[in-house]
Amino acid sequence: LSLSPSPSSSPLSHRSIATMWVNPEEVLLASALWITERANPFFILQKRKGHGDGGGGLAGLLVGTLDVVLDSSARVAPYRILYQTPDSLVYWTIAHGSSRKEITENWEWLEQNLLQTLSIFENENDITTFVKGKVQGIIAEYNKNHDVKEDDDTDKFKEAIARFRKLFGMPDEEKLVNYYSCSYWKGKVPRQGWLYLSINHLCFYSYLLGKEAKLVIRWADITQLEKNATLLLPDIIKVSTRSSEHIFSVFLNIGETFKLMEQLANIAMRQLLDNKGFEQDRSLPKLKRKSPKKVSALKRDLDARAKSERYRALFRLPKDEKLDGHTDCTLWTPFNKTHILGQMFVSTNYICFTSKEETLCSLIIPLREVTIVEKADSCSVLPSPLSISTKNRMTFLFANLKDRDFLVQRISDFLQQTTSRIYFEREITGSLNSSDDEVGSGGRASLHRHVPTATQALMTMYRRRSPEEFNPKLAKEFLKEQAWKNHFAEYGQGVCMYRTEKTKDLVLKGIPESMRGDLWLLFSGAVNEMATHPGYYEELVEKSMGRCSLATEEIERDLHRSLPEHPAFQNEMGIAALRRVLTAYAFRNPNIGYCQAMNIVTSVLLLYAKEEEAFWLLVALCERMLPDYYNTRVVGALVDQGVFEELARDHVPQLYDCMQDLGVISTISLSWFLTLFLSVMPFESAVVVVDCFFYEGVKVIFQLALSVLDANIEKLLNCKDDGEAMTVLGRYLDSVTNKDSTLPPIPHLHSLLTDDGEPHPEVDIFKLVRSSYEKFGTIRADVIEQMRFKQRLRVIQTIEDTTKRNVVRTIVTETAFTIDELEELFVLFKAEHLTSCYWGGTSNPTDRHDPSLPYLEQYRIDLEQFKGLFGLLFPWACGAHSDTLALRFFRLLDHNGDALINFREFVTGLSIVCHGDLTEKLKLLYKMHVLPGKRVSDWKIHTPDYRTYLRLWNQETRSKLENMKELPKLNQGQFIELCKTLYNMFSEDPREQELYHATATVTSLLLEMGEVGKLFNSLGGKEEDEEDEDDEDESHRAGSMPRHRGRGDPFLQGLVPEPEAGEGGRAGPRGPATDDVKLEDGSPKEAGLSSAMLTSDEEAKDDTSMSSYSVLSAGSHELEDKLQCEDIADDTVLVRSDHGNANGSGDHGNGLSHSSSLDKDWAITFEQFLASVLTEQALVLYFEKPVDVMARITNAKNAHKVGRPLVSTSDYEISLSG
């Protein structure tokens, strides 16, 4: 029985109900820390002590401090409603609100809808059940109507989000990831509070006895993030920016906090590096069904991403593979007949296993290879077993699975998706794949008609081995091949092979020449991408052939420098294969395109692998195994250079200081790492390094580099300069030999360039590799990743600083700003760009930020962003007129018309306004109004290639002094807009009245000049019109009068409308009287020199209009006919009386009627405008007034504290470093 009205009859909207009603929670002490404001027999409305007026004295301060420290919801919702039955001591919270108005609405709803109903019940338990059910029903109905899912963020986390936005003025677009209790060290005093980690910012808030502390730092501004310990504090996190250091301590779970901070900082660095923004993806792991309830959905998603990244790196899987879940289990290994304890990982396309002991055994089973998944019978020896069979007749037996049924269901689902996908691909590519091999090879041959390298490795054609030839080297090679064949027989062959310590030993002894390509493909994981993308490479080759770009030009230049000493690249066959692979990759990944060193690595891949295989090996290398190595700024190699320096300091400390002094580490590491030693070692030795690299990853390169340094310690310590050190290392590397190689000796280019001293004793490559494992094998891949993160922060921030310095150095000679001012302006310009990338803008962030472009073009802002900076930095910005003036200014600065301006264009405009002389400022103002009107939406946004930028800059650098006479004349419509601008510019100036009078005088003078100009131009006007109709059209389009203000006024909207069809761009006198505000020409002979200016009727005003005014001129030779100024204010009316009427009623009784029209022949020149302004001292002083640029920059920085101004009278600190 429900006697109360339905929720739909409630006077409150569902949204307001649901956002304030809460699931009833029990409260034992209703009066503790709360003050009762209203009460009735069933409900109590309370306010938190210390909230609102008065602050509640000491008790209020203590309550405020407790709320922050204990993370109380009262910080967000200081009002609440409790439910209580008359005879009970237990209270229930049923609603809370952030303001008295909100909570009063709930209170009134309760009184109107529930009080009478509750009095009917006799049993108190029934009343409690009814009230709780009613509140829960309202919330449930809201959730159903608004599609709120149960697994969304918890109420506690929603409170934290609301608190975060309220405290730091963050918009809804800023997503909170998690928050942690900690102490922030402000000087020598710790402030206990809460650390909020959002996608783009690190924020801290503390409230202690009336004192607030706030801190806001962009992730993109962080230069160092460290977790370490001091004598006083066991665990601290130190966050460094360019200008300050911040220390946080006393974390409950410092490990989790630091990992999340690292992850968010990494995302920010990625955005700065290659513009891949963070995209929220809610595909969270399903296997682990008991996920923590108090963690945000975004935090769970980030955790899932981090796990997927580690999973992909561990098993060398494709970049888009997502981990679904993992579970402990055992794996039966037939080669040693034992059950190995480890973890099974399940993802969309793979089942993987790794043993607890890292080196014991690992396994990768692609679902495309799986034929059967079945549950075997359990027994005491083998509980919950699972059997998986593959196409190559291998069976894998897993056991001790905790949730076997669920696991089998997940694998079956993924298997079904994989099977249907393979079937679909076969259907699509049936013409290529359904026939026998002849058709497939024929299809490929048609694409590469004269290129046999498409189907075989280049090395097979250059291995001159006669059947009777047999020597010890070949015997050793034969034994190696046999060892690998025996290994395959025992451990399996192909992707599903058991990978054990024995596999690693075989790799370290060297992979046989004949098997090298296949095993590189297998160990790198490239085999998986190739198998899942049939025909992809051929398509790329076809699409990229004949295309020209910067990358293809560089490729052509480097083709003949790629292993020129090898016979395979001394003819067109090898060169053509190399060209195709490099061009196809540049086409696939334009972010990387082509980088020097890729040619050397690719040429070696082509020697041992088929062309398509070499392509996929290059993909694995560039995109997974050596991330960011080959982009335009070789960031990955610079990061690893920093990692190598750290490792050298830890592992060869006696050499570190010497190497730093000589500056050798940075020189050697780039060439060693970028080419995997291929450019510094004899070819037959370097391929052994590549063998190990594909099996073990980048740690091999670090180990080997440390071994080379370690072997030359004494010689390096005696070196006097970097040249000597490089010679020592070069001679050592030249002497590294591979005595097992069956290849004919190939002269090494590096050795030809070294000095003629005694040759270095030979160093066996296998011994060098073995010693690198013995001495430095403890270096772990996860430690390298940790070091990479630290170095990535440093490298990317250094690149950003270099960009800033280069931009400033380029334009410092072009402007009057100092270097310090330019650097501060660049920081503001970049911050405006980043803020808009975070929280949205009118244009795509990728259009505005392209790190691959030259320095000056990397950051560009659109109109909306420019408006923000214009209001803060430009002295002409004033009141409601600022946006319109900003639009005019933006159009003038946007030279290439792509609706974006770069930093140089921005600074050029600002420099004139702040440091230009009177003539330059007035010329700028004049040019802003003489531009033809054009809608912003009509601007074509395009991204020109680099040649366009070079051409534009060449034009800009040829600075020519613009002759005043080259400036076009200002027509009457444009003149009206210029007058509007002047009046609005002065609206907040201390000498406002004086400036208005001066402007009125100048306006009157210019109107007369325009009329006089008409007399001289009237004779030739018609002929000119006939000669150049287009120009006239454009001129009238620019001068066509605006529609009603507010509704269609282009001046207010920043747009000038196109002429209507049939009007020819003219505002004819026969237009609708209520549509156009028009001016009527007076006869010069009868009424003196009469003209008129725009007036705004009271009826046409609306919220968007600024100060309205009208200016009339007739018979202006008389002194008393000067413009008058009355009650200058926001609604100023400037009038000129024809017949002594102060209201402006003149020729037609109403001053300016809607039937008047613009004078198309009226115009003034810039010289006339300049001369008129110079007659008024007030205007001259205004435009010559010096501008304190640093003060404006400081104000702009303060206003930029996270997008919105933070209003607080308490002690707070905001840091937005840059």
Into which percent range does the helicity of residues fall? 40-55%
Low-confidence stretches: 1-19, 277-294, 430-453, 750-754, 933-947, 956-962, 1021-1156, 1202-1218
Average of the residue pLDDT scores: 74
The total of helices stands at 45
First-to-last CA distance: 64 Å
**Cα radius of gyration in angstroms:** 38 Å
Overall spatial form: globular
What is the structural class? alpha+beta
The strand line-up of the biggest sheet is 17-18-19-13-14-15-16-20
Largest sheet report: 8 strands, antiparallel
Portion of residues in beta strands equals 5-15%
Oligomer: single chain
**Total number of β-strand segments?**
30
Region (Disordered): 1019-1109
Domain EF-hand: 881-916
InterPro entries: EF-hand-dom_pair, EF_hand_dom, GRAM, PH-like_dom_sf, Rab-GAP-TBC_dom, Rab-GAP_TBC_sf, TCB1D9/TCB1D9B_PH-GRAM1, TCB1D9/TCB1D9B_PH-GRAM2
Keywords: GTPase activation, Repeat
